[in-house]
Design a protein that fits this description.
This protein is an alpha/beta fold. It has nine helices and 13 strands. The strands form three sheets. Strands 1-3-2-4-13-5-12 form a seven-stranded mixed beta sheet, with helices on both faces. A four-stranded antiparallel beta sheet has the order 8-9-7-10, with helices on one face. It has a two-stranded antiparallel sheet with strand order 6-11. Helix 1 packs across helix 9 and helix 5 (212-229) runs antiparallel to helix 6. The structure holds zinc ion (2 copies). Residues 105, 141, 367-368 line the site of one zinc ion.
């Protein structure tokens, strides 16, 4: 097959993929509730002769395209399906019909892209020595993420998946461009809840109580020394206390203060170091003030690390579709998290940043914003790049 094949082929289904994306956009569903979305994906796949596989314990759709020209490797293409609890502010004809829920992270486009890649590759099974697995997963936005459970249920087996690819749209990148970060791309994340327990009493007599607000204030400032002093200045750490609550009245010492926050590092083991250091600081300060504490962490996501040889292949394949000049290496890693990391924990994988912005058309709102939208040309580009990567991976 010639290199420009998918670039041409995608033109035939481009209108259909845009229509599909708009359908998804009109009917957004929150994490782990993507049941209608799954039904629509299944129908779309069946309509073009792709039979979805067995069901999972949560809303998910998986289908395998089996090449018939011989045996070979399997590459998975992943889309996430969930929307966000955001009230959409848009006058577009395809604006959300589900009040308070919005596809503000572009997952509607991701689904259309994977369906598009599937439709195109399905026409070439007789030429393929290998397989392509389409994975539509729930709940990327909410911990512990949909990927973890699908992997536990064997989504990376039968056939054994050798590599996995996903796109994430980004509006700060112009449509037609694609960024790939080789190696460390996104952060390992941990969320924490910290409660400081003091002793309440009359605010006029602070010596008779233990003011948990004063203790909490010391802790918040001391925690920032972890960011500046635990590692070399060139190693990033994010430690943010994002909520704080305590106290009941202006003349009563607060008996307890509760704080929630996040820890992000590009290295899973550094995250563990931060956690230990936090414990030490909190223990030291509370002890010195006669207070007590509880500090709990959730499991978090591992770091997103793009496999270097797969990243090179993705760049080469993307250049065949979009042109050499539109493919670039992302310089700075992001401290955001992605549950795609779970797949990369088990298999070589790459997640790209696919441009969906268009400054001329005013499509600039960032993801997770109530005005977020995409230049829909990105859907065809994303689908064609995915098909090309799968093709090149199977038939190098
Ligand atoms: Zn998101
Ligand atoms: Zn997202």
């Amino acid at each position: 097959m010639t290199n420009s094949c998918f670039r041409t082929e995608v033109e035939k289904i481009k209108g259909y993929l845009v229509q599909l994306r708009r359908e998804f956009h009109r009917c957004p569903e929150l994490s782990m509730q993507e049941f209608e979305t799954c039904k629509r994906i299944k129908t779309a796949l069946l309509e073009c002769g792709i039979e979805p596989e067995r069901d999972f314990s949560e809303p998910a759709v998986v289908a395998v395209l089996r090449g018939t020209a011989g045996s070979g490797p399997t590459i998975a293409l992943r889309a996430d399906m969930d929307a966000l609890p955001i009230v959409e502010k848009s006058k577009a004809s395809y604006t959300s019909q589900n009040p308070g829920i919005m596809h503000a992270c572009g997952h509607d486009a991701h689904m259309a892209m994977v369906i598009g890649a599937g439709i195109m590759l399905n026409e070439h099974l007789y030429q393929m020595c290998g397989n392509v697995k389409l994975i539509f997963q729930p709940s990327e936005e909410v911990y512990p993420g949909g990927a973890y459970s699908l992997i536990e249920q064997g989504v990376l087996e039968n056939p054994h998946v050798d590599a996995i690819l996903a796109h994430h749209v980004q509006s700060h990148i112009e449509v037609g461009r694609i960024g790939i970060k080789t190696g460390n791309f996104m952060a390992a994340t941990k969320e924490f809840t910290l409660s400081v327990k003091g002793k309440s009493g009359h605010a006029a007599h602070p010596q008779r109580g233990i003011d948990s607000i004063v203790v909490a204030a010391q802790i918040i400032l001391a925690l920032q020394t972890i960011v500046s002093r635990l590692t070399t200045p060139t190693t990033p750490i994010v430690l943010s206390v994002c909520t704080i609550s305590g106290g009941t009245k202006s003349n009563v010492l607060a008996g307890e203060v509760t704080m929630c926050g996040t820890v992000r590092t590009l290295d899973d083991s550094l995250g563990e170091q931060v956690r230990a250091q936090m414990e030490q600081i909190v223990r030291g300060i509370t002890q010195s003030c006669g207070a007590s504490y509880s500090l709990k962490f959730d499991g978090g996501y591992p770091a997103v690390r793009n496999d270097s040889s797969l990243a090179m292949l993705v760049k080469q394949s993307a250049a065949k579709i979009l042109g050499q000049k539109t493919v670039f290496e992302i310089q700075e890693p992001s401290m955001g998290g992605e549950d795609f990391a779970w797949y990369q924990h088990h298999r070589p994988g790459v997640i790209t940043n696919l441009g969906c912005g268009n400054t001329v058309k005013g499509i600039v709102a960032p993801i997770h914003n109530e005005h977020f939208d995409i230049d829909e040309d990105c859907i065809a580009y994303g689908a064609a790049v995915m098909a090309q990567v799968a093709w090149d991976y199977i038939d190098p």
